[in-house]
Design goal:
The complex is a heterodimer. Chain A is an alpha/beta fold. Chain A folds into 4 domains: 5-205, Pyruvate-ferredoxin Oxidoreductase, domain 3 (3-Layer(aba) Sandwich), CATH 3.40.920; 225-404, Thiamin diphosphate (ThDP)-binding fold, Pyr/PP domains (Rossmann fold); 418-497, no CATH class; 504-629, 3-Layer(aba) Sandwich (Rossmann fold). In chain A, the strands form 4 sheets. Chain A has a 7-stranded mixed β-sheet with strand order 9-8-10-11-13-12-19, with helices on both faces. A 6-stranded mixed β-sheet of chain A has the order 2-3-1-4-5-6, sandwiched between helices. A 6-stranded mixed β-sheet of chain A has the order 16-18-17-20-21-22, sandwiched between helices. In chain A, strand 4, helix 2 and strand 5 form a beta-alpha-beta unit. In chain A, helix 6 (156-168) packs across helix 8 and helix 11 (276-288) packs parallel to helix 13 (306-315). The longest helix of chain A has 25 residues, at 474-498. By secondary structure, chain B is α/β, with parallel strands linked by helices. Chain B is built from 10 helices and 8 strands. Chain B has helices at 34-47, 83-93, 105-111, 113-122, 167-174, 187-199, 241-254, 274-280, 289-292, 303-306, and strands at 55-59, 74-77, 98-104, 126-132, 178-183, 203-209, 225-227, 260-267. In chain B, helix 7 (241-254) links the parallel strand 7 and strand 8 (260-267). The N and C termini of chain B lie far apart (41 Å). The relative contact order of chain B is 0.14. Classes of the chains: A alpha/beta, B alpha/beta. Chains A and B meet through strand 7, helix 9, helix 10, strand 9 and helix 11 of A and strand 2, helix 2, helix 4, helix 9 and helix 10 of B. The complex binds thiamine diphosphate and iron/sulfur cluster. The site of iron/sulfur cluster (SF4) has 12 residues of chain B, from loops. Chain B: Residues 61-208 form the Thiamine pyrophosphate enzyme TPP-binding domain. Chain B: One of its GO terms (molecular function) is oxidoreductase activity, acting on the aldehyde or oxo group of donors, iron-sulfur protein as acceptor. Chain B: This is 2-ketoglutarate ferredoxin oxidoreductase subunit beta. Chain B: It holds the Pfam family TPP_enzyme_C. Chain B: Keywords: Oxidoreductase.
Chain lengths: 634, 311
């Protein structure tokens, strides 16, 4: 839409270095003073298949991938060929070109590798005709040949970056710096040569007929380029977490990897274990023994964690679990985002089970809410879950360095020292009344750690007496149940009264129409609301993070303040809208759902369109693969 | 000063300290073999110089899982089959704790079978006692992974078509560095073996034959038994993997026919424990991780330092 932004898409095959190239390029843009946001799309395979990364860069803040894009760098897919004619990833060679054209904006720029994508293939695509229709500017460059000249065919990515820089009039300085940091010797030499040759060759060979130039910007403070997974991992580190157990499953693997790589230097312990039941059980064991620990998975693995989750709750062992959603059911679309595990995460585990669930909506929130999850879990001895998705996991955004400058919190919450234990209540045999309900505050009875003097008790998943003996006495049962149930209410009060709200608001204070969203759809909604208001509509938004205890007060106030609302989420059944209705017991007639579940996240334009279709009250559906579920009674 | 003063405390320890002073009375049936395990642990722990507060007993679910309800140490009664992952993490978090995991044959070899193999493989420094009564006790007498082929129960009314599991061989193959079998009916041997298992650095697996007079009246696995260390017929080298494998095979073949061998089957004192291996590769701190949280002078690395690479 706007001309003051660059949305650069690099497309090719998985394993072609798309990811690392784009990371570097995004960083270079950030260093040049721009705000950046990346979006990654890849198939569930290791080599080959169509994959792309988009980098959106602008002087103003960018919170979403934007709509479409305006610069395509199309590399060939040289690694893997799919032998099956009919397979979805059919003709790999032209895929990085053909597959991407639909979303390229009018007036956009195309660079493709003529060394890998032949003229014939291009002719088959009717590229010339389409370019004319859409005002695209096409620059075929033999990137492979150029890289080959310097002896490294794989460095055609670098050639592509050189061409991009020339076409956009970008300084090569930041790219050179980043390359020098990352490599050395011959490899660096070759890359730098390729970069410069490509730059110069482009300037010499082409007459630029496009208007698109890189925007300029200037940050006040130093920036860091982080992904949601980085933010969660760093949030855990600063919360004092030093034990992680896991089993790989996309997209959670990123967090697991980051912590596994950093823990040895921090005196932490990481364990890759036999399955997710074990993983969560290990986190429980480590936490019981006095270490701040966590585990996590994606839906399928989280399913296995429901047992240890309940155990942690009943034994009041603090526990943080991370749940990274992807499209399902079952293994679903392993590398595509969805927000469809909400109900699962809220209610996993048998009986009247309670846990705390936070759903961060962007990188900063991911960091803060992970810290919050640890605080709450250790203060209240209750499982806390951070739920996010493949989109937030993999997207990168620049964050002010100053945002992070804070201390590690090794505080074990409601845990006693040996001195304190001496003063605490014990039974006649000298056992510590670990699960005392008599003077528990906010439902919390402080705990001891094995090995401490005077703290002996039994933790059990069975109902138990104050010292932890298995106990089926009805009075004890009711007292213990009521004490545990008290925690969630106390947490709700703490979140409402003592802490800054984790809900995020957009748009004007007063508006006729409301958009409600959660998690990673937040960015697209934020931008859509800005556009709608710029276009004269009256729309405001709230992005909710407190899923359990639910942000009852904030959502009620929001819904009361608007005539109508649309709930935007990436799933097919409107799970979040359902949660609002369940928690608040009303507003079923006020809320429409805008749903998307095709494996791709919302673009702001789709939210705008959803609003328009909905408000026009026409009995129709938006164009894209996005669906409207009307309000009750509609 | 350590935050865990109970650990390594040296004093005379009376075995009664391991008995809870106030309730609960064991709910086990009269004649249950589980009493034998409890008793041998109460004897072995003080003899091994352990005091109740430095010991963490982690159990699963079943009659067997109630062990730590009747034993006054720090305890964690977990869920069916999951004692091992909980226990080994506690040991990783604080290697100075004496960690003992226990559970039934259904618990340990059935639902928890995967954890059993992996804990043995990694050779975690801990003791694992499996109450092998060849039956599901707490759920009232169903066929278990160690029940003999042909065993009839309400859920396998025509007699089990399955060959029983071979816990000793399995543990040896998986990598346990101490494998023994003892029986509730031989308290002296049981105590000695448990004590050795506690003192062993590495994964010590004790298959503990316990009778279930309520649901498994026909089981003959505990009479008569022969102590392989005491008997002249078995001149077997406990440090030899081959000999251990052979003797395990023999006894596991005839277990349900009446001749039962007990004693130490395999001891490998040279294999480093998992904790040692993990320290050697730099994946575990030298000081117990759990101590850091109580140490006001501990230096905590901040994520802020990691941000350099994101600039
Ligand atoms: C996940 C799960 N499945 C089933 C049960 C029910 N259950 C409780 S004890 C038990 C079997 C116990 O048998 P075993 O482990 O041999 O111990 P024993 O009672 O004989 O000592 C089962 C199946 C459970 N508690 N949890
Ligand atoms: S049912 Fe069997 S195992 Fe359980 S307590 Fe009774 S005798 Fe012991």
């Amino acid at each position: 839409m706007s001309d003051d932004e660059l949305i650069w898409r690099i497309a090719g095959g998985s394993g072609d270095g798309i990811d690392s190239t784009s990371q570097n390029f995004a960083k270079a843009l950030m260093r040049s003073g721009l705000n950046v946001f990346t979006h990654r799309h890849y198939p569930s395979r290791i080599r080959g298949g169509h994959t792309y990364v988009e980098i959106r860069a602008a002087e103003r803040e960018v919170q979403s991938r934007g709509d479409g894009y305006n610069f395509l760098l199309s590399l060939g897919d040289s690694f893997a060929r799919n032998p099956q004619e009919e397979a979805f990833y059919g003709n790999e060679e032209i895929k990085p070109l053909s597959e991407n054209l639909d979303e390229l904006r009018e007036g956009g720029v195309i660079v493709y590798d003529s060394g890998l994508i032949s003229d014939e293939d291009v002719a088959d695509l009717n590229l010339e005709e389409r370019a004319e229709e859409n005002g695209w500017h096409v620059y075929p460059v033999d990137l492979r040949g150029l890289a080959k000249e310097h002896g490294r065919e794989v460095m055609r990515n670098t050639a592509g970056v050189g061409v991009t820089a020339a076409l956009l009039d970008l300084d090569l300085e930041h790219i050179e710096d980043l390359m020098s940091d990352a490599m050395g010797g011959d490899v660096l030499e070759a890359n730098l040569e390729i970069l410069h040759d490509a730059y110069e060759m482009t300037e010499e060979d082409f007459e630029f007929e496009h208007d698109l130039r890189a925007p300029t910007g200037d940050h006040d403070t130093e920036q860091a380029l982080l992904s949601g997974s980085n933010a969660i991992a760093y949030g855990a580190i600063d919360a004092g977490c030093r034990f992680i157990a896991g089993y790989p499953m996309t997209p959670w693997t990123d967090v697991f990897t980051i912590l596994s790589q950093n823990f040895p230097d921090m005196g932490g312990v990481s364990e890759q274990v036999e399955d997710e039941i074990a993983a969560a059980a290990l986190a429980v064991g480590a936490s019981h023994a006095g270490v701040k620990s966590m585990s996590g998975s994606s839906g399928g693995g989280f399913a296995l964690m429901s047992e240890p989750l309940g155990l942690a709750e009943m034994t009041e062992t603090p526990l943080v679990l991370i749940e990274s959603m992807r499209a399902g059911p079952s293994t679903g679309l392993p590398t595509k985002p969805e927000q469809s595990d909400l109900e699962f995460v809220l209610y996993t585990s048998q009986a009247d089970s309670q846990r705390v669930v936070f759903a961060p909506g962007n990188i900063e929130e991911a960091y803060e809410q992970t810290r919050l999850a640890f605080d709450i879990a250790w203060d209240y001895q209750i499982p806390a879950i951070v739920i996010y998705d493949q989109k937030l996991s993999g997207e990168n955004k620049n964050v002010d360095i100053e945002f992070f400058d804070r201390e590690v919190s090794p505080d074990l919450g409601s845990t006693l020292t040996e001195d304190e234990l001496r003063e605490a209540a014990h039974d006649n045999s000298g056992k510590f009344k670990r699960f005392n309900y008599e003077d528990a505050e906010d439902g919390v009875s402080p705990r001891s750690i094995p090995g401490q003097k005077g703290g002996r008790y039994l933790a059990t998943g069975n109902e138990h007496s104050p010292v932890g003996h298995i106990n089926e006495d009805p009075d004890n049962r009711v007292a213990q149940m009521e004490r545990r149930l008290e925690k969630l209410e106390a947490i709700r009060t703490e979140l409402d009264e003592e802490r800054d709200s984790t809900q995020t608001y957009f748009g004007p204070d007063e508006a006729d129409y409301g958009i409600i969203t959660w998690g990673s759809s937040q960015g697209a909604v934020e931008e859509a609301i800005e556009r709608l208001n710029n276009d004269g509509h009256s729309v405001k938004g709230i992005s909710v993070s407190d899923m359990m205890p639910f942000a009852e007060k904030e959502v009620t106030e929001f819904l009361e303040s608007v005539d109508e609302a649309m709930v935007v989420e990436m799933n097919a059944t409107g799970q979040f809208r359902g949660l609002i209705q369940k928690e608040l017991g009303r507003y079923g007639d006020k809320m429409t759902s805008l749903l998307k579940f095709n494996g791709n996240p919302f673009e702001p334009g789709e939210v705008v369109e959803g609003y328009e279709v909905n408000v026009a009250e026409e009995d129709q559906q938006p164009d894209a693969q996005v669906r409207i579920e009307p309000a009750a009674g509609d | 000063m350590s935050a865990f003063n109970a650990i390594g405390e040296e004093r005379e320890i009376d075995r009664d300290e391991f008995t809870p002073g106030v309730e609960p009375q064991p709910t086990w049936c009269p004649g249950c073999g589980d009493f034998g395990v409890l008793k041998s642990l109460k004897q072995a722990l003080p003899e091994a110089g352990k005091n109740p507060e430095e010991v963490l007993t982690v159990t699963g679910i079943g009659c067997s899982g109630k062990l730590n309800s009747y034993l006054d140490t720090y305890g964690f009664h977990t869920i069916h089959g999951r004692s091992l992952p909980v226990a080994r993490a506690a040991k990783l978090a604080n290697p100075e704790l004496e960690v003992i995991a226990a559970g039934g044959d259904g618990d340990g070899y059935g639902i928890g079978g995967n954890h059993f193999i992996h804990t043995a493989r990694e050779n975690h420094d801990m003791t694992y006692i499996v109450f092998n009564n060849e039956i599901f006790g707490l759920t009232k007498g169903q066929t278990s992974p160690t029940s003999p082929k042909g065993h009839k129960s309400k859920t396998q009314p025509s007699g089990s078509a399955k060959t029983p599991i071979r816990p000793l061989s399995q543990s040896l193959t998986a990598g346990a560095s101490y494998v023994a079998r003892t029986a509730a009916v031989n308290p002296n041997q049981a105590k000695e073996i448990i004590k050795e298992a506690i003192e062993h650095d590495g994964f010590a697996h004790v298959d503990f034959l316990t009778q279930c007079p309520t649901w498994n009246k026909d089981a003959r696995q505990y009479v008569p038994y022969i102590d392989i260390q005491e008997s002249d017929d078995y001149d077997h080298d406990v440090n030899s993997r081959e000999e251990a494998a052979e003797i395990m095979r023999e006894t596991e073949d005839v277990l349900n026919e009446g001749t039962v061998l007990t004693g130490r089957y395999y001891v490998d004192d040279d294999r480093p424990s998992y904790q040692q291996e993990k320290k050697a590769v730099g994946e575990m701190p030298d000081e117990p991780l759990a101590e850091r949280y109580f140490d006001d002078d501990a230096e905590w690395e901040r994520s802020y330092d990691l941000l350099e690479r994101h600039k």
